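Quick one - inputs below.
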Amino acid sequence: MLSIERVSETTIILRAQDANQYGGYIASTAAAIEEALGEAFVEIAPAYTSLMLVVDFPRLRCCEVIEPLRQLLQHSNSRQQTMPKRHRLPIYYGSEVGPDLDELAVKAGISRDDAIALHQEPTYRVKAIGFAPGFAYLDGLPKSLQQARRSNPRTMVAKGSLGLAEDMSAVYPLASPGGWNIIGRCPATLFDPQQQTTELICPFRVGDEVQFYAVSRSEFLELGGALD
Amino acid sequence: LTSTGSLQILKASPATTLQDIGRRGYQKLGLAQGGAADLHAFLWANQLLDNRVNSATIEVVLGQFEARFTQATNMSVCGADAQLHINQEPRPLWQSMRVEKGDQIRLSLPRRGLINYLAIEGGFQFEPVFGSAATVLRESTGPFQGKALCEGMSLGFFQRPALRQRSTPLAFQPDYRAPLRLRWIPGQQVDMFDSEQIDALCQTTLKISANSNRMGYRLHGFSLNALESRSHFESEGIAFGSIQVPPNGEPIVLLNDRQTLGGYPKIGCVASLDCYRLSQLRPGQEVYFEKANIDECEEELAEFLHYFER
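Output:
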């Protein structure tokens, strides 16, 4: 069950009480709210263990939606969680596009090929989308690859860069400043503002699963990847 | 888009942007809300021209704006006390007025307040980006590739016949110099802080930090220390007006261009109407927190917004 808090005149935050209720549970709750009460809200924004709702104010007041929300949460509690979407992302691993790969492998005390293989092992989960448009935080990085952010962030990280920081991986959907350790690059477009639907603008949703697989330099270029 | 006239920008300060009431439904993709920072002045500027509530206006920050109209229309300027001139002739703010083809307008650096809204009858024309005219410079999101307005750009509009002159009653023209009361709606992670410390915060006059902008307003003069430093506090969505307390203890009130997610504890929210006023304040100006009732704040905000609904 999620707790319900009115945090401002227009905004409600639902939070998981149980630390195990995250990802898939929040995503399926967001989908259920969208379906049953979508008209009532102008924002339905999931994080990993919480969900922020902004009511269509002043047409509606928070007090008018809290009871329907409570009932929906009671029912969706027993409901089967929706299956998470799975994304498979090609990555060209290498120092040409991943300037921090060698240092990361040295710090992890493994060869760079082992580091590359290790990074492809887990199934990652989209924990949250934020920081920048379409930027998906992926949970599940193996312990030995975990490193702090760079003490001196780069002023520009290329679009598609695969970065690691703490226990997270992420692909920079657009070029931006950034402090993550960059080990490769993904040729796929992960944020396309020209598209008309939110699904096409950004493929990720909180709770989705992501797997990475290595491609060669030439495959990366064939898939539309760009070098600097 | 076809438009018969345009406003040609001759000069603009670096943070001058096109804005409407902001983006809706894209926070789940990590896009900021954006939109007019001082919704009070924004809504009045449109209201004086009988515009739809969400018409695109120019948000001029710190004046120093000059532009020329290529066709006749009606306009209004609301907000900070910048001096408005049309063809060298001083004109009042908070009033609708006629502008003729070729007229040149100028807004000087204001003495009180930061922001002015320049509205035009029917609104400026734009290509919506994520359904909105809101410009978020940090994300490069919005019309004109999400960039600030500058010399050489022009904004289209439709020529209009003269309109009956209207003005905002004096009682609704704020004095941006006065110390600002920030009504505080307690909640969220407020329990992570000692209640005596929170009481003391409400007794303190705080000052706006120089490091304040459309993303958030930082407040100097009181440092809050969390009781427990939770090793793992999950990031969550950030409501408009949230009062976030980073490790240095100085509260930040998060506004239109705030990031969509944050993992610092929050002690609650500032009432929206007070956030609009806050966005007009300059570094060094004084604010204080006053504990508020969420139902009263909600009622007042609804009344305010209903007034402009059409």
